[in-house]
Amino acid sequence: MSAHVVQLSRSRGGVPKLSIDEATVTAAGLAGDRQRDRRFHGGPQRALCLYSDELIEQLVAEGHPIARGTVGENVTIRGLDWSALRPGVRLAIGEIEVEITAYTAPCRTIRESFLDENFTRISQKLHHGWSRVYCRVLREGTIRVKDQVTLMASPGLP
Questions:
Q1: How far apart are the first and last CA of the chain?
Q2: Domain count, the chain
Q3: Which of 29, 32, 82, 103 has the most CB atoms around it within 10 Å of its CB?
Q4: What pLDDT, in 10s, does the model give residues 41-55?
Protein backbone atom coordinates (compact mmCIF):
# COMPACT_ATOMS: atom_id res chain seq x y z
CA MET A 1 0.00 0.00 0.00
CA SER A 2 1.20 3.53 -0.71
CA ALA A 3 1.93 6.11 1.97
CA HIS A 4 -1.21 7.19 3.78
CA VAL A 5 -2.58 8.91 6.88
CA VAL A 6 -3.18 6.46 9.74
CA GLN A 7 -4.23 9.01 12.35
CA LEU A 8 -5.19 12.67 12.62
CA SER A 9 -4.86 14.19 16.08
CA ARG A 10 -5.75 17.40 17.87
CA SER A 11 -6.11 18.73 21.39
CA ARG A 12 -7.28 21.76 23.29
CA GLY A 13 -3.66 22.27 24.35
CA GLY A 14 -0.86 19.91 25.18
CA VAL A 15 -0.54 16.16 24.80
CA PRO A 16 -1.81 13.66 24.11
CA LYS A 17 -3.57 14.82 21.00
CA LEU A 18 -6.69 12.73 20.43
CA SER A 19 -7.68 10.85 17.29
CA ILE A 20 -10.21 12.28 14.83
CA ASP A 21 -11.36 10.96 11.44
CA GLU A 22 -11.10 14.15 9.40
CA ALA A 23 -10.17 17.81 9.76
CA THR A 24 -10.11 21.06 7.88
CA VAL A 25 -6.58 22.39 7.43
CA THR A 26 -5.85 26.08 6.85
CA ALA A 27 -2.64 28.12 6.86
CA ALA A 28 -3.19 28.43 10.63
CA GLY A 29 -3.20 24.64 11.10
CA LEU A 30 -5.60 21.84 11.84
CA ALA A 31 -9.06 23.13 12.83
CA GLY A 32 -9.75 22.74 16.53
CA ASP A 33 -6.12 22.10 17.49
CA ARG A 34 -4.55 24.31 20.17
CA GLN A 35 -1.02 24.67 21.49
CA ARG A 36 -0.16 25.69 25.05
CA ASP A 37 3.02 27.57 24.23
CA ARG A 38 2.72 29.46 20.94
CA ARG A 39 6.33 30.65 21.19
CA PHE A 40 7.49 27.16 20.18
CA HIS A 41 4.42 25.52 18.62
CA GLY A 42 1.86 26.53 16.00
CA GLY A 43 1.83 29.53 13.72
CA PRO A 44 2.09 29.55 9.93
CA GLN A 45 5.58 27.97 9.76
CA ARG A 46 4.56 25.24 12.24
CA ALA A 47 0.93 24.80 11.19
CA LEU A 48 1.12 20.98 11.21
CA CYS A 49 3.35 18.46 12.94
CA LEU A 50 3.89 15.14 11.15
CA TYR A 51 5.33 11.85 12.41
CA SER A 52 6.00 8.34 11.15
CA ASP A 53 3.88 5.39 12.25
CA GLU A 54 6.80 3.05 11.59
CA LEU A 55 9.05 5.06 13.92
CA ILE A 56 6.37 4.93 16.62
CA GLU A 57 6.27 1.13 16.20
CA GLN A 58 10.08 0.93 16.51
CA LEU A 59 10.01 3.08 19.66
CA VAL A 60 7.34 0.79 21.16
CA ALA A 61 9.58 -2.20 20.34
CA GLU A 62 12.38 -0.46 22.31
CA GLY A 63 10.01 -0.34 25.30
CA HIS A 64 8.86 3.27 25.12
CA PRO A 65 5.21 3.90 26.16
CA ILE A 66 4.60 6.05 23.07
CA ALA A 67 1.40 5.91 21.01
CA ARG A 68 -0.02 7.86 18.09
CA GLY A 69 -0.70 11.46 19.15
CA THR A 70 1.27 11.31 22.40
CA VAL A 71 4.22 13.30 21.06
CA GLY A 72 2.01 16.08 19.70
CA GLU A 73 1.84 15.18 16.02
CA ASN A 74 -1.27 16.15 14.07
CA VAL A 75 -0.73 13.71 11.21
CA THR A 76 0.68 10.21 11.64
CA ILE A 77 1.81 8.73 8.33
CA ARG A 78 2.55 5.14 7.32
CA GLY A 79 4.55 4.03 4.28
CA LEU A 80 6.66 7.15 3.72
CA ASP A 81 10.45 7.03 3.56
CA TRP A 82 11.03 9.23 6.62
CA SER A 83 14.71 9.67 5.77
CA ALA A 84 13.66 11.60 2.65
CA LEU A 85 11.92 14.28 4.71
CA ARG A 86 13.78 17.49 5.40
CA PRO A 87 13.04 21.22 5.25
CA GLY A 88 11.96 22.25 1.76
CA VAL A 89 10.31 18.94 0.85
CA ARG A 90 6.69 19.21 -0.23
CA LEU A 91 3.97 16.64 0.42
CA ALA A 92 0.44 16.22 -0.88
CA ILE A 93 -1.77 14.84 1.88
CA GLY A 94 -5.21 14.13 0.46
CA GLU A 95 -6.35 17.46 -0.94
CA ILE A 96 -3.85 19.63 0.95
CA GLU A 97 -0.24 20.45 0.16
CA VAL A 98 2.42 21.22 2.76
CA GLU A 99 6.08 22.14 2.84
CA ILE A 100 8.37 20.92 5.61
CA THR A 101 9.84 23.94 7.38
CA ALA A 102 11.84 22.41 10.25
CA TYR A 103 12.61 19.39 12.37
CA THR A 104 10.59 19.53 15.56
CA ALA A 105 12.68 19.91 18.71
CA PRO A 106 11.35 17.65 21.45
CA CYS A 107 10.34 19.23 24.75
CA ARG A 108 9.65 17.95 28.23
CA THR A 109 5.87 17.93 27.74
CA ILE A 110 6.24 14.66 25.77
CA ARG A 111 8.51 12.97 28.34
CA GLU A 112 5.88 10.46 29.48
CA SER A 113 6.07 8.81 26.03
CA PHE A 114 9.63 7.62 26.70
CA LEU A 115 11.53 5.26 28.97
CA ASP A 116 13.12 7.22 31.80
CA GLU A 117 11.31 10.26 30.36
CA ASN A 118 14.14 10.57 27.82
CA PHE A 119 12.26 12.72 25.29
CA THR A 120 15.53 13.49 23.45
CA ARG A 121 15.15 10.04 21.88
CA ILE A 122 13.43 11.79 18.96
CA SER A 123 15.84 14.72 18.73
CA GLN A 124 17.13 15.25 15.18
CA LYS A 125 20.46 16.46 16.58
CA LEU A 126 21.00 13.37 18.74
CA HIS A 127 19.17 10.70 16.70
CA HIS A 128 19.20 11.74 13.05
CA GLY A 129 16.07 10.61 11.20
CA TRP A 130 13.87 10.14 14.29
CA SER A 131 12.42 13.66 14.52
CA ARG A 132 8.90 14.83 13.88
CA VAL A 133 8.65 17.60 11.27
CA TYR A 134 6.82 20.92 11.14
CA CYS A 135 5.06 22.09 7.98
CA ARG A 136 3.49 25.17 6.52
CA VAL A 137 0.28 24.77 4.53
CA LEU A 138 0.50 25.66 0.84
CA ARG A 139 -2.95 24.43 -0.21
CA GLU A 140 -5.81 24.30 2.29
CA GLY A 141 -8.54 21.70 2.41
CA THR A 142 -9.87 18.71 4.31
CA ILE A 143 -7.79 15.66 5.20
CA ARG A 144 -9.00 12.27 6.33
CA VAL A 145 -7.63 9.08 7.79
CA LYS A 146 -6.56 6.82 4.88
CA ASP A 147 -5.79 9.79 2.59
CA GLN A 148 -2.82 9.16 0.31
CA VAL A 149 0.46 10.96 1.05
CA THR A 150 2.72 11.77 -1.90
CA LEU A 151 6.27 13.10 -1.83
CA MET A 152 6.40 15.90 -4.39
CA ALA A 153 9.36 17.31 -6.30
CA SER A 154 11.23 20.03 -4.45
CA PRO A 155 14.11 22.29 -5.42
CA GLY A 156 17.43 20.60 -4.76
CA LEU A 157 15.98 17.10 -4.64
CA PRO A 158 16.57 14.40 -7.25
A1: 23
A2: 1
A3: 29
A4: 556 889 999 999 999
